[in-house]
Specification:
transmembrane, transmembrane helix, membrane, mainly alpha, globular
């Protein structure tokens, strides 16, 4: 199958989607709607803080508090799963993200304390969203259809990360240039926030169209784990290391080197729909044994982007970096998540534990990586210079990420070996 063939047969692809289990389809539709929210949260909240404070360290503090709220909420969610429906917790997380943005927009002055509170709230929303999303994805898919599941989900995430920044960026830029809202950009951000909140309500309604089962085993807190899971935590730490930078550096680079939020949307849009179609095609046609190749390709593209940015450190260099980032993240995720799910399937069966145990534990591996990544950025920006943090530390992160390739290959081989034994 090629991209051309894919475009000629949309009805066949829709029928292929309808042939998947209903639980999987409801979850995918919910995530597709929420996919329109994530770009606003991940890109424009950082840009809003940067515009209002002109201090990249406050942006980093916001992200650090977001990442602190996530594992705390994973822990809380583990206890709540024994009492509250998983779909209710999932929808609450989506609604809370809109509420967090409303809190941010209500702040008169962006102090460290105010931004920190908004960040914790956003972290809690992500915690409820991602913990339940991962558990639902794990329970409604299997190793054979996960490439398709994550391919389709990533297809929509990529499309929205292209379209939403263009639309929102154009709206904010037009409002600024034409003096809408009395020249008050704050009002423009408030309108965007209201739209985001309405989308979270819609996605919350959809997820309740299906009855999803909560874990039967209530206990999820453990200290000792199988050696394979410890290796998976190492891979999670490396993934988190890159995440710590990629939610902070792009917005700052764009604002410093390229221009306003309109440019931010334009740069994201340059990658085009072809990228998203390619990701869908990969999910539709590839098999589990192809995941390492996709994983490696994503990391190579990320390294290329950081090198171009570091060498040129110009508007063009930033555009190349963001284009590489747009391609790297979905390629990485379309391979990473099925690998993680496969390991959880294998290890939970061996250790006879609640699968949420590993989803919760996995988040701490990510958190350590994110904390180190953001901490490194703050340290470089504070004690050396902001330009050094934006130029060279990204290259260091990309080089370190290459260690993920042999580790992921070993994890995949060992998981299938244990599955067969």
């Amino acid at each position: 199958m090629t991209i051309t063939a894919l475009l000629k047969k949309p009805s066949e692809e829709y029928q292929y989607f309808l042939n998947k289990p209903r639980e999987m389809r409801v979850l995918l539709v919910t995530n597709m709607i929420y996919a329109f929210v994530l770009p606003v949260i991940e890109i424009f909240v950082g840009a809003y803080i940067m515009r209002s404070s002109n201090d990249p360290k406050i942006v980093a503090v916001y992200q650090l508090t977001v990442y602190t709220g996530i594992p705390i909420t994973f822990l809380l969610n583990g206890f709540l799963l024994s009492r509250i429906k998983i779909s209710t917790l999932y929808s609450f997380g989506m609604l809370l993200s809109g509420l967090s943005m409303l809190v941010m927009m209500s702040l008169q002055n962006l102090s460290v304390a105010g931004v920190g509170i908004a960040g914790i709230l956003m972290g809690c929303s992500f915690g409820f969203f991602w913990s339940n999303r991962d558990l639902l994805a794990l329970n409604t898919t299997n190793d054979y259809n996960r490439n398709y599941y994550y391919g389709l989900e990533t297809f929509f995430y990529t499309i929205t990360f292209i379209l939403v920044p263009v639309i929102v960026g154009a709206f904010l830029s037009t409002a600024d240039s034409r003096g809408w809202f009395g020249g008050n950009m704050h009002s423009g951000y408030q309108i965007v926030t209201i739209v985001v909140f309405l989308l979270t309500i819609l996605s919350s309604v959809v997820i309740h169209k299906e009855k999803f089962k909560n874990p039967e085993e209530k206990k999820f807190l453990y200290i000792k784990f199988h050696s394979l899971w410890k290796k998976m935590l190492g891979l999670a730490g490396l993934k988190g290391l890159a995440q710590g930078y990629l939610v902070t550096a792009p917005a700052i680079l764009i604002m410093r080197m390229v221009g306003n939020e309109g440019s931010l949307g334009l740069v994201q849009g340059v990658s085009g729909v072809v990228t998203a179609l390619m990701l869908y095609l990969l999910g539709r046609t590839t098999k589990p044994e192809h995941r390492i190749y996709i994983f490696s390709a994503g990391l190579a593209i990320f390294l290329l982007g950081t090198l171009v940015n570091g060498i040129l450190f110009s508007a063009f260099g930033v555009m190349v970096f963001v284009l590489c980032k747009v391609l790297f993240q979905p390629l990485h995720d379309i391979a990473y998540f099925p690998i993680q799910m496969q390991v959880i399937d294998v290890v939970s069966k061996i250790e006879k534990r609640n699968k949420f145990t590993y989803i919760f534990n996995h988040e701490f591996g990510l958190y350590i990586g994110r904390f180190l990544g953001l901490g490194l950025f703050i340290a470089f920006a504070t004690y050396i210079s902001e330009s050094f943090a934006l130029k060279y530390s990204l290259i260091v992160i990309a080089v370190v990420q290459l260690a993920s390739i042999p580790l992921a290959r070993h994890i995949v081989r060992e998981s299938y070996k244990l599955q067969k034994s």
